[in-house]
Amino acid sequence: MRKRDPLRTFLLGTALVALILSAAGGCSLFNDDDDDSKPPPPVPPAVPVALDVKWSVKDNASGAQMLAFKARIEAASAQLWNATSGQMYLRNVQLEDQDQSGKVILDNLTQQDGDLAFAYTYQLTGGGWEIHMGGLYPMQAFIHEVGHAEVLQDWTVAEEYDLPGPTCICAMEAYITGSGDGKVIYCDSGNCTKSQRSGCWQALILQMHSNWTYPRTAGAAPACTVTITDHP
Ligand SMILES: [Zn+2]
Ligand SMILES: [Zn+2]
Predict the structure, then answer these.
(1) Domains of the chain: which residue ranges?
(2) Distance 12 CA to ligand 1 centre (A)
(3) What's the gap in Å between 77 CA and the centre of ligand 1?
(4) Residue 141, Cβ neighbours under 10 Å: how many?
(5) Mean pLDDT across the chain, nearest whole number?
(6) How far away, in angstroms, is 62 Cα from ligand 2 center?
(7) Distance 7 CA to ligand 1 centre (A)
(8) In the chain, N or C: fewer CB atoms in 10 Å?
(9) Distance between CA 216 and CA 102 in Å, rounded?
């Protein structure tokens, strides 16, 4: 004996209901044929990328310095969230001093610059990346380097300071020395000043993250949990 197929029955039932509805619609007094009034399709929900990244401090940091680094990492996560229109942030961060095993390495405690350059990112052989910054990095340094590593995922053409044209508002420009955090957003086709580019969002970011949308309201950043290992 053949078992009854519940899925088939369900589909048949659905088809029957649809048929009845369409027949009813054809003669309904309330039928509205005006399709122009349909609202636009809703923007799909964001699929944020949550980064779990270890941060290392090369030197021996005091407890107060580690707490300051922790607060700065939380601010960096919120800034990344804002720069990516609510589509990437730091979720869990292990912060350890006297260590160099992290993906983000603070080369010193009290300078804006890292050891070899202001800040830099390089690809590791076999995959992955490593960011170096000074302990007192301006926020643009982080948004720029994490731009290479994760947001734009490009180590070469993403440098806007290599392109001719007026200085862009973009974090992928060079950092302007002085106090302050610099440029902490990625440019788009409407505000990029480099004629060769259609802006970081259109040229690179949306190509790398096919399920992201732009523009989008970022909203409040999710929690960034920083766990400290402070060696004496
Ligand atoms: Zn840009
Ligand atoms: Zn630009």
Answers:
(1) 49-229
(2) 53
(3) 19
(4) 26
(5) 85
(6) 39
(7) 51
(8) N
(9) 31
Distance 168 CA to ligand 2 centre (A): 5
- The contacts of residue 155 (CB under 8 Å, 6+ apart) are 121, 122, 123, 148
pLDDT digits (tens, 9 = 90+) for 124-154: 988 899 999 999 999 999 999 999 999 999 9
Q: How far does the centroid of ligand 1 lie from the alpha carbon of residue 129, in Å?
A: 20
For ligand 2, a single-atom ion, the residues with CB < 5 A are 160, 168, 170, 187, 192
pLDDT value at residue 183: 95
Residue type, 5: D
Cα 7 to ligand 2 centre (Å)? 53
Per-residue confidence band for 35, with pLDDT thresholds at 50, 70 and 90? low
Higher-scoring residue by pLDDT: 128, 31: 128
C-beta atoms surrounding 38 within 10 Å: 7
97 within 8 A of 59, measured Cβ to Cβ: yes
Looking at the CA of 171, name the nearest ligand: 1
Residue 194 CA to ligand 2 center (angstroms) comes to 6
Separation of first and last alpha carbons in the chain: 76
**Ligand minimally distant from the alpha carbon of residue 167:** 2
State the DSSP string of 31-65: ----GGGPPPPPPPPP--EEEE--EEESS---HHH
Look at 44 and 137; give whichever has higher pLDDT. Answer: 137
